[in-house]
Structures are given as structure tokens and as C-alpha cells.
Design a protein that fits this description.
The complex is a heterodimer.
Chain A lengths: L10 E6 L4 E8 L3 E9 L1 H5 L6 H23 L8 E7 L3 H18 L3 E5 H7 L11 E6 L4 E6 L6 E5 L5 H11 L7 H10 L21 H16 L6 H26 L4 E5 L6 H12 L4 E3 L3 H4 L4 H12 L22
Parallel strand pairs in A: 1-4, 4-5, 6-9, 9-10
Antiparallel strand pairs in A: 1-2, 2-3, 6-7, 7-8
Chain B lengths: L2 E5 L4 E7 L4 E8 L4 H15 L9 E5 L5 H18 L3 E4 L1 H10 L5 E7 L4 E10 L2 E12 H8 L6 E4 L3 H12 L3 E3 L9 H9 L18 H15 L1
Classes of the chains: A alpha/beta, B alpha/beta.
The complex binds zinc ion.
């Protein structure tokens, strides 16, 4: 007929409220950020030494329409231009998730825009697609306050968790050790900074678990740090916090890097993606870069702003799920225990 | 004018659509089910049954609390988002006032709507009609039902209690107030969303971005933090 079809650009609006960031972003064609707004509540939670769920939920209600408006004006788009609304369904704090989910449903209803549910970790992994195109099969090391996982992907939108923590997440261990060293919340960045100037001379355990396992365990290490501090106090000895931080960090990173390298080999992947808030850790970045500098596998580490919780990553993942036809109805609920394999079809 | 009212502040789920002359549609349930799953489908169904689309709406009225923190937040989040994105005014009404408005119209005295707030406490306030308009006599608050009942005995008129949680506090109230206390009938204990819509219909729209639930109480962690810091200051 001589007609030609113009490919229309795809715009996905993402909403993320699973913890203490209220975030909205708009992504064009799955890879291009046209708006990315994050309102952090961290200052409000600091005085409590951690995130208080009720207070997080209250802040989300205060912030969400402001953040939505800011994102829409950054993008200079109208809702008729938006193809899908992607929202974090879980995991996370249920009261916090509910705010994003219900706002997303209201938008979806008001403008008859398809609703796309997204797993928070799928989002973290897809933050990498805003940096470079994904090359399958790939492996993603997800490290955050609530998660430590190795995820294998054979193709877009398909997730296989090959290893995960059996007790504390790495970020949790960081926060607890920081508390032992009397550092303010959140402790991760403080430990990382101290570790840069300390020497890893204190002997701490590494939990390799059984042969061939890609699972993690950090509670033994955390206890060992606490015991080391106690024993030193009792003997009237002083331990340099810098050295303790360096030794702790070395132990965590040893396990993370070694297991990631091993899985990279076994699964013959083309790419390794770092994901999650702990990806901001300098020590971890450096060691991974060193290790992957010696082998022929691409390592991708997103910039800090895309490692911590944001909605650009939710929209980026949502773009793929939208294409795959994944939809939620207006009865979508928050699901704090959501499994990432819901996206596998 | 088509006003959509949403109330999810306690177990009852209420949605209504009214215009100047009539209640066009109303949906009420009182079951222990998850509001998050049910509110938007209920709104969608009611609009559809009334042959309306979201763009026909001209105002959103929402029950602003007090009540279940999570429940109030679900309604308020949906109301704020709809109001913002449809560019129509948002009005918040006390969740207690809705109950009082429905039963107090023809009652010659004060109305005390109540929700149980655990450990002997209630959320309540005192309302009364004056020249056909409802007035707040005592603002919404949280206190022991016993203390509240005692306080009300100072009034020289009967007080009508209304709310699904009356059975939890009736004995205490009657003990303090005797015949002065009257109690609404079973069919009047659910807040009527149409009443909510009428209460909000002629009130001025509020700033959407700064609109927040009226929790009455601070978050527990915040109360503890303030107490701890005051203790530190006085040392
Ligand atoms: Zn996260």
C-alpha cells in the first residue's frame, strides 16, 4: 500500500515508594531519562537511627503529588503522552509501598493508562540499562540495605536468583557494625570512608558456606566484629576503628567479589551488573573493577544516583514488562514479600 | 457538578457520587477487608454504573481522619492524586463529622461520633446542628472514653453517640451519663459517603500538595523521641 509505519516513542512513568525515598521518573524508549525526581526522607529518619515505617508512610503522602508535578514539568509531557505507569509493587515497607501503588492506580484510572507492576530488585538491575545496553546472558550482583543477591538473566525480563543472603543483607551488616562503632545512621558510607584509611589487619571470618553455593551470610561476621570490640574493651586495649572498618569491609568484599567471579565463570555471562545502594561503596567498586580488569567480561557500575532508590530504574524495568504485556488491574496491592520471578513468563 | 466522595478511614468503605440535586450513586461495605485492593475498583464500578467518566468529576471530597493510619492514607492518597491529575478541587472532611452530620440533623442536642482507639481510648469530638448547619462544639481528639463521658455530663442536654465501635464503650458511657446518653441505631452506624460529599460540596478547595491526613496523634516513634529529648533537656 506504500504506507509506512512510524515508530512511536514509548514513555513510561515510574513511581517508587518502597522505603524512604519518594520518587517519580519518566523514561523514553526504556533507556533515556527525561525526568528523574527523588525526595529523600533520610534527614527525618536519622534521629531515630533507622527508617521508621509509620513516619516513612506519612512523608510519602506529603511528597508524592509534589514529586509527580516536578517530574511532569521536567519532562514537559502530558498524561496523554504516557504509555504506561510502572510502580513498585514490592518488596519493601508495606505502608510505604501502598502510597505509590494507590497513586499509580488513581493515575491509571484517571487517564486510562495501563498499569505495570514492578519488582523493586528488577528495578535496581534495570538501572544499568540507563547506562549501557544489557548483553545477555548476564549476572547482576544486587547489594543494598535489604538485599544481597546474585541474579542470572538469560534474556530481558527473566530473572533467576542463583544466590541470596541467608540472614542479614550486606547493607544491614554495615549499619549494625557502624552502630557498634558509634557512627550515625546510615552507617555504610561512614564505614567505607574509614576503611579507606585503615589497614585490614584484624582477622575476621568469611562465610563461604557449602561448596558451590552462591548464597551469602553476614550475621557471623557482624557478631565477630561486635565480639572483637567487646573483648578489646575488657582487656583495656584499643582498636583503631579505621582498622576494624577496613577489616570488616575486606571480609564482606572478599566474599561478594569471589562469588561473583565464580558465577561469572560458571554461567559464562557476557556482562556483570552491579545494583543496589551498596554499589556506591568505593571499596566494592575498586575491587570489582580490579577483578574484572583481568578477565574479558564487561562490568557495569551505574552512577551513585541510579544505585540508590529512584524511580528511573522502576520505569526502565517497567518499559520491558510493558512490552511483554505485563499489566495489573485496579485491585493491585502492595506486596512486601513479592518474588522477582513473577516477571518470568 | 459531580462530586466524588471517598471514605476509607476505618473498616467501612464508602464511595459516593452526588450532584447539586441528588445522590447519584453510593457504595458502602463494612467488612474487614483490604481497602487498597477494593477502593479503586469500587470507584471505577460506581462511575461506570452511573454512566460517568473520570473527566466528568468536578470535585473530590475525602474523609481526612482520624481513623486507621493506613486506611486514611489510602483514601487521602487516591483523593490527592485524582484531584491533582484531573485538576479539580480537593476538600477534606473529618471522618467523625460525617457520622455526626447524618444523625444529628433532627436531634436536639450534641452528637458524639466515636471510633475505638484501643486501650480504653476513643477518637471523638462534639458536633451540633444550628440553623440547619453542623457546627463543631469540641474539636476531634483522642482520650479515654470514661474521661470524655464525664466531661459531657456538664452539658445540660442529651448527647447522641454514633459509630460502629459503640459496643466497646457503651457500658462506660452509660455508667457516667445514664439517661443523658442516647445511642444511634444499627443502620446509622456506618458513615454515609453521600453525607461526606454534601459536607464537602460547598467548602472551598484546599492546597493539594500540602493536604495531609488528620492523624490526631504523632507517630509513636516521634512521641518517644520527643519524650527522650525532653528528659535529656531537663537533666
Ligand atoms: Zn532499593
Amino acid at each position: 500500500m506504500g504506507e509506512f509505519i512510524m515508530e512511536k516513542d514509548q514513555y513510561i512513568l515510574g513511581i517508587e515508594t518502597s522505603c524512604d525515598e519518594t520518587a517519580v521518573a519518566i523514561i523514553k524508549n526504556g533507556r533515556e531519562i527525561v525526568a528523574n525526581v527523588v525526595a529523600s526522607q533520610i534527614e527525618s529518619h536519622k534521629r531515630f537511627g533507622g527508617v521508621v515505617p509509620e513516619i516513612a508512610s506519612r512523608h510519602h503522602v506529603e511528597q508524592l503529588t509534589i514529586v509527580l508535578e516536578e517530574a511532569m514539568s521536567q519532562a514537559t509531557l502530558e498524561f496523554k503522552d504516557i504509555d504506561g505507569i510502572a510502580v513498585t509493587e514490592g518488596p519493601g515497607l508495606v505502608g510505604a509501598l501502598l502510597i505509590g501503588v494507590n497513586a499509580a492506580k488513581a493515575l491509571s484510572f484517571a487517564h486510562q493508562i495501563p498499569l505495570v507492576p514492578v519488582h523493586h530488585i528488577a528495578g535496581h538491575i534495570y538501572a544499568n540499562r540507563l547506562v549501557t545496553e544489557m548483553k545477555f546472558p548476564l549476572l547482576s550482583l544486587v547489594v543494598s540495605g535489604g538485599h544481597t543477591e546474585l541474579v542470572y538473566m538469560k534474556e530481558h525480563g527473566h530473572f533467576e536468583v542463583i544466590g541470596e543472603t541467608r540472614d542479614d543483607a550486606a547493607g544491614e551488616a554495615y549499619d549494625k557494625v557502624a552502630r557498634t562503632l558509634n557512627m550515625p545512621y546510615p552507617g555504610g558510607p561512614h564505614i567505607d570512608r574509614l576503611a579507606q584509611v585503615g589497614e585490614p589487619i584484624i582477622n575476621l571470618p568469611r562465610a563461604w558456606l557449602e561448596e558451590g553455593s552462591y548464597d551469602f551470610s553476614f550475621s557471623g561476621l557482624k557478631s565477630a566484629v561486635i565480639n572483637t570490640v567487646h573483648n578489646a574493651e575488657q582487656r583495656g586495649e584499643t582498636i583503631k576503628p579505621e582498622d576494624l572498618a577496613a577489616s570488616f569491609q575486606e571480609s564482606v568484599i572478599d566474599v561478594l567479589v569471589t562469588k561473583t567471579l565464580k558465577a561469572t565463570e560458571e554461567y559464562k555471562v557476557n556482562q556483570v551488573l552491579l545494583a543496589g545502594g551498596v554499589a556506591a561503596n568505593k571499596g566494592l567498586r575498586n575491587r570489582l573493577e580490579e577483578a574484572f580488569g583481568e578477565i574479558n567480561v564487561e562490568l557495569v557500575i551505574p552512577p551513585l544516583s541510579l544505585c540508590t532508590d529512584n524511580a528511573a530504574m522502576i520505569a526502565a524495568a517497567g518499559s520491558i514488562f510493558f512490552e511483554k504485556g505485563q499489566r495489573a488491574g485496579l485491585n493491585l496491592n502492595a506486596n512486601p514479600g513479592l518474588d522477582i520471578t513473577i516477571h518470568n513468563q | 457538578m459531580k462530586v466524588l466522595a471517598i471514605d476509607t478511614s476505618n473498616y467501612p468503605l464508602g464511595i459516593a457520587i452526588i450532584d447539586e440535586e441528588k445522590v447519584i450513586g453510593e457504595y458502602v461495605t463494612n467488612v474487614k477487608k483490604n481497602h487498597s485492593i477494593r477502593v479503586m475498583p469500587a470507584i471505577e464500578m460506581l462511575l461506570k454504573d452511573c454512566d460517568l467518566t473520570p473527566n466528568d468529576l468536578t470535585k473530590i471530597v475525602v474523609a481526612q481522619g482520624p481513623g486507621s493510619y493506613t486506611g486514611v492514607r489510602i483514601g487521602v492518597t487516591i483523593a490527592k492524586t485524582l484531584s491533582w491529575t484531573l485538576k479539580i478541587p480537593l476538600v477534606g472532611v473529618s471522618s467523625l463529622e460525617i457520622l455526626a452530620a447524618a444523625v444529628g440533623r433532627y436531634f436536639p442536642g450534641g452528637v458524639s461520633p466515636l471510633f475505638d482507639a484501643r486501650r480504653g481510648q476513643i477518637y471523638t469530638g462534639l458536633y451540633q446542628y444550628e440553623n440547619g448547619k453542623i457546627k463543631t462544639v469540641e474539636k476531634d481528639q483522642i482520650l479515654q472514653s470514661k474521661d470524655w463521658a464525664k466531661q459531657l455530663t456538664n452539658l445540660s442536654q442529651p448527647v447522641l453517640f454514633v459509630g460502629n465501635d459503640i459496643p466497646l464503650h457503651k457500658e462506660i458511657i452509660v455508667e457516667e451519663m445514664g439517661e443523658q446518653a442516647k445511642f444511634a441505631e444499627l443502620t446509622e452506624l456506618n458513615p454515609r459517603p453521600s453525607e461526606l460529599a454534601f459536607l464537602g460540596m460547598h467548602r472551598e478547595g484546599e492546597e493539594v500538595h500540602t493536604f495531609v491526613p488528620n492523624y490526631i496523634r504523632l507517630a509513636e516513634a516521634e512521641t518517644k523521641w520527643i519524650e527522650a529529648n525532653q528528659a535529656k533537656d531537663s537533666n
